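[Discussion] Sanity-checking designs against the backbone

I'm trying to build intuition for which residues belong where. Below is a structure token string of 327 positions. I'd appreciate it if someone posts a full sequence so I can compare it with mine line by line.
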């Protein structure tokens, strides 16, 4: 199955730090990879330098069955490989050949279809390292599962979730309770940020089994033009999804705080999809965009779409535009 941009397979990068929350990210990544025929890579980032951890035996075949003997970063990757094996994605072979990178090490496993899945351990600043990998390999989606640190800690500028929303160079799926087979709830108001979501949705359609849900929240301050724009966007989106032979639901809601309304209607077992804000950088950092507000409230998983649309808005809602996703 071919998917993603210009007929190529979608490229997914999943991050694991070895903590329990990372299991959810790996499971979600495995489900998407299997459903979409996507290309998957796994990464962990160590804040230390090479000198802190023992050097692995580069070039030698290493048995992952006893990964307690490996350096800490490679232990994280061995555990990630075991999770993907439990999900039925990778083969059960335990021996891998560890290879060297300029800033770390990697090994390669095979999935059940014979495709390569690289596992990287890199040393450096987490955001800079991830952005470097995104630029080098052109990933369409980063999947992470940061632990729930509580409302106070989410307000701290150093929160990695907030930094990823603001500065990561690709779309990001923050995995919490929602899974790949959960409801997908798309925030659609007709804005430029909202229109960013549709190329990503086209890639994800084969993996979405429940009805695709679109939502618009009208606040007391919403003007008539915005309501008309959102109504038109929702109707065109409904026609588009119906034309792709997928069930669809449209929700027109009202409330003072859209993030609170959307988080409440989503509940836990859902994936909220929202386009990244195009507001001025200072505004986003001081006041917070809709994605940041939703992430601070929602128990559901949240997909923040940052990629620019490659098609004109009219093409996005053409029923023929979804056919490539199912080839």
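Best answer:
Here's mine. Compare freely.
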């Amino acid at each position: 199955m071919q998917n993603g941009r210009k007929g190529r397979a979608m490229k997914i990068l999943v991050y694991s730090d070895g903590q329990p929350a990372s299991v959810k990210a790996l499971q979600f990544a495995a489900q998407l990879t299997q459903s979409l025929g996507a290309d998957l890579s796994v990464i962990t980032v160590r804040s230390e330098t090479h000198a802190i951890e023992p050097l692995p035996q580069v070039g030698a075949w290493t048995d992952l069955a006893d990964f307690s003997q490996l350096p800490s970063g490679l232990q994280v990757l061995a555990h990630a490989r075991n999770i993907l094996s439990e999900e039925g994605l990778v083969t059960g072979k335990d021996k891998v050949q560890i290879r060297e990178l300029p800033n770390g090490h990697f090994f390669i496993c095979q999935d059940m279809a014979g495709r390569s899945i690289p596992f990287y351990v890199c040393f450096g600043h987490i955001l800079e390292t991830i952005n470097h990998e995104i630029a080098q390999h052109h990933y369409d989606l980063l999947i992470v599962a940061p632990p729930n640190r509580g409302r106070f800690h989410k307000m701290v500028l150093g929160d990695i979730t907030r930094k990823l929303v603001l500065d990561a160079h690709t779309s990001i799926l923050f995995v919490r309770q929602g899974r790949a087979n959960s409801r997908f709830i798309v925030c659609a108001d007709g804005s430029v940020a909202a229109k960013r979501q549709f190329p990503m949705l086209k890639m994800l359609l084969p993996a979405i089994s429940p009805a695709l849900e679109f939502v618009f929240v009208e606040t007391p301050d919403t003007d008539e033009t915005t309501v008309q724009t959102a109504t038109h966007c929702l109707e065109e989106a409904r026609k588009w999804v119906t034309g792709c032979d997928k069930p669809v639901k449209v929700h027109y809601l009202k409330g003072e705080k859209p993030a609170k309304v959307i988080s409440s209607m989503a509940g836990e077992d859902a994936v909220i999809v929202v386009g990244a804000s195009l507001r001025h950088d200072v505004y986003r950092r001081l006041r917070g965009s809709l994605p940041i507000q939703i992430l601070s409230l929602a128990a559901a998983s949240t997909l923040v779409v940052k990629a620019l649309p490659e098609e004109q808005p009219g093409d996005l809602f053409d029923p023929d535009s979804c056919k490539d996703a199912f080839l």
